């Protein structure tokens, strides 16, 4: 999976000289939290709702609200925007983009190709991807958690064989490291209303099923 497969390409942008209150209106009208900023058609920064909120009048100032509002209405997005936001390539693996977002504490990554803005990927896109990957929202499905501690390589064919015997398709399979150890938990979502008999057989095969929901 690459960033290009999930990024938003129908972009709404503003010019560097757009008044910040106008930019806020654009965000509200389009139900977005941030806007790429351009200058002569070239991407130069990113402005967010939080930046505008933080620039709004505060009681911790000697200026009057009217004076502050006047200043705010005169300000343009280039006064607030992040001028060098973290960006990614559309060819970057999705998991690396997620890691960059976490590492830098940002909720959106503009996507550039050859210096040109071609998309943006946000925490909302990533949440949707995770939901789809985990099979959440799939009707008639169950989640099975297996403690894989101590399991040797080659146990997955046994897992798949048991589920195949019961004609239960796997919607998703994910390994998560256990906190503070080198052991892993397996999280499966399977397409069935009742996996009870398959779970019995998994336990007979030595799989430690810890949770079923």
Describe this structure in words.
- The protein is an alpha+beta fold and 213 residues long.
- It folds into two domains: 3-131, CBS-domain (Roll); 135-212, VC0802-like (2-Layer Sandwich), CATH 3.30.2130.
- The chain is built from seven helices and nine strands.
- The protein has helices spanning 20-30, 49-55, 65-74, 94-104, 123-133, 156-165, 196-204, and strands at 14-15, 34-39, 42-48, 108-113, 116-122, 142-147, 170-177, 184-190, 208-212.
- The strands form three sheets. A four-stranded antiparallel sheet has the order 7-8-6-9, with helices on one face. The protein has a three-stranded mixed sheet with strand order 1-2-3.
- Strand 4 (108-113) and strand 5 (116-122) form a beta hairpin.
- The longest helix is centred in the first third of the chain and has 11 residues, at 20-30.
- It is elongated and about 75 Å long.
